[in-house]
Amino acid sequence: MSLAKRIIPCLDVDNGRVVKGVKFVDIRDAGDPVEIARRYDAEGADELTFLDITASSDDRATMVHVVEQVAGQVFIPLTVGGGIRTLEDIRRMLNAGADKVGINTAAVFNPEFVRAAAQKFGSQCIVVAIDAKKTSQPGEADRWEIFTHGGRKPTGLDAVAWAQRMVEYGAGEILLTSMDRDGTKSGFDLPLTRAVSDAVSVPVIASGGVGNLDHLVEGILQGKADAVLAASIFHFAEYTVRQAKERMAARGIEVRLP
Amino acid sequence: MTTVAVVDYGMGNLHSIAKALAKVAPGADIRITHEKSLIAAADRVVFPGVGAMRDCMRALHELDLHEPLRRAAAEKPFLGICLGMQALLESSEENGGTLGLGLLPGRVVRFAENLHDAHGEPLKIPHMGWNQVHQLAAHPLWQGIAQDSRFYFVHSYYAQPAEAALVNATSDYPAPFACVLARDNVFAVQFHPEKSQQVGLRLLENFLGWNGAC
Asked: Staple A67 to which of A51, A96, A166, B209, CB 3.0 to 4.6 Å?
C-alpha cells in the first residue's frame, strides 16, 4: 500500500470555453469545460487543472462560473491558475469550489504574495507555477531560468533556487513547466524535473512536452515527479487517462485505478 | 428530511463539502453555519477544516463553539474531516504545541523528515494525493466501499490516539498511521471524502443515512 502517483489533465479555458481541439467522439459540445471535466473524471483523472487564458480581466467572472459548475458535478481536487494576483482572486476561486490555485507571474513580481496567500488560506491550496527554460550552454552544468509572459521574458531567477524559495514562503506544491518542451511532444525536461524534485520537500507536478504515455512514465521514474500534467494527448483523444494509468501500472508505478 | 450543520469557523473551503452532500442527498437541508442554535438543532454535524491547528482553535474559541461541538459529538452522528478530525484530539505539535478540543484521547504529530518509500525514494510532505485506506473494523460508514479503496489526502500532521480501539482505519506513509478514528456516534477522517470521487460520495451518503450506532 502506498500513495499513488497522480495524472492531472489540464484544460485551457478562454472566456469560459475550453480551447485547443477536443475530439471526444461522444461529447456534444467539445468546448464545454463541464462536459470535458466530467469525461476526465469518469476516465479516472486524479485531479483537474484549469488554466484561465482569458486576455481581459473583465471576463474573469466567467471562470468563476465555470469552476462553480464543475465543482457541483466533479468530486476530485480542482486547481485554477491564470490571472491569480490578489488574495481576493484566491478567495473567489476557493468559494467557487476550487481546492487549489496556481500562482505564477504574480509570485515572480511579488514573492510576498505567496507568503500572504499561504498564511491566509493554508499551504495546501497554494500551488506555485514555474515556467523554466534552460539557459546553460552545452558543456556547462545544467541551469534553468524562470521566464514570464509565456516564456518570452527572462527574469534572471534560477529555477531550482526559486522553487526552494517558494516552498519556504509556503507553496504546498510546485507545478513545473519546461518552456523548452511545452508543445513539442518530445517529453518532459527530465533533468529539470529531477533537479527541482530533489531540491524541494513538497510534491512536484511535471508539465510541458508530453507526447505519449511513456513520457508520463519517464516523468515519474526519471524525473521523480509526484504527479504528471498533460493537455493535448488527452484533449485529442490520442489516449485516455485510463490508458495512461494502465501504462504506468505496467511499469511498476502505483496508480489509482477506480 | 435530514438536516446537516456544516460547521463554518473560517477554516477553509466548505463549498466542496456542501456540494458533495447536496449531490448525494438532494433533499437534505444543508446549512453552512457557526450558529450554535443551528448546530444544536441539526440531525447531524459535519466538522471540516483545513489550515493550521492554532488558527482553528482560536476561531473556535472566538465563536464559542467548544461546547456546541462537544455536545454534538456526544449525541448525534458527527463527521470530522481533516483538521476537523485533528481538532477533536487533546493536543497537536503544530505551531509549537496547541491544545485541541480534547473530545478524543490522543495527540496530533507531524510526519518525520526524511521519510522514504519501499523503493528508497524520499517521501514528500505534505502527504498529498490518493492513498489506500485499510479498514480495521466494520462500520456502517464503510457500507459499499471496498477494502483498501483510495481516498484523497492532503496533510502534514496526523492523529496519534491514546487508545488503539479508536483507530478504525489506517493508511501507510510509509508506516501505518490512523486515518479514521471512530467511537460511538463520532467518525473522523483525515482524508477528504468530498474530493474522493465515488468512494468519497458513498461515505458521505452512508453518513447521511447513519443513525449514529455502530
From this structure: A96
Residue B65 near residue B34 (C-beta atoms within 8 A): yes
Q: Give the CA distances from residue A59 to residues A14, A17, A65, A67, A182, in Å, rounded to whole numbers and listed in that order.
A: 9, 12, 11, 14, 26
Q: Is residue B73 part of a domain?
A: yes
Task: State the complex-level ipTM.
Answer: 0.94
For residue B198, list chain A residues with Cβ-Cβ distance below 8 A.
Answer: 258
Q: Answer for the pair A7, A217: CB distance below 8 angstroms, yes or no.
A: no
CB atoms B152 and A77 under 8 Å: yes
Domain around B94: 3-209
**Catalytic residue among B82, B94, B155, B179, which?**
B82
Number of domains in chain B: 1
In a domain, B191, yes or no: yes
B121: left (phi over 0), alpha (psi -120 to 50) or beta: beta
> Residues with Cβ < 8 Å from A81, sequence gap 6 or more?
A49, A50, A51, A52, A101, A102, A103, A104, A127, A129, A175
Q: CATH number for the domain including B200? A: 3.40.50.880
Residue A204, phi then psi, degrees to nearest 5:
-120, 130
> Which CA distances in Å does A203 have to A6, A197, A226, A228, B123?
11, 7, 6, 11, 9
B154 shares contact with chain A (CB less than 8 Å)? yes
Domain assignment present for B168: yes
Within-domain flag for B214 = no
- The single-letter code of the amino acid at B105 is P
Nearest to B128 among A122, A203, A258 (CB): A203
From the number of C-beta atoms within 10 Å of its C-beta (0-12, 13-18, 19+), residue A205 rates as buried
Q: What letter does residue A79 receive in the DSSP assignment?
A: E
Comparing C-alpha atoms, which of A119, A155, B33, B190 is closest to residue B3?
A: B33
For residues A33 and A17, is the Cβ–Cβ distance under 8 A? yes
Sign of CA dihedral A29, A38, A95, A63: negative
A207-253 pLDDT, tens digit per residue, is 999 999 999 999 999 999 999 999 889 988 789 999 999 999 999 99
What is the pLDDT, as a whole number, of residue A53? 86
Low-confidence stretches of chain B (pLDDT beneath 50): none
DSSP string, A176-193: EEETTTTTT-S---HHHH
The Cα–Cα gap between A82 and A105 comes to 9
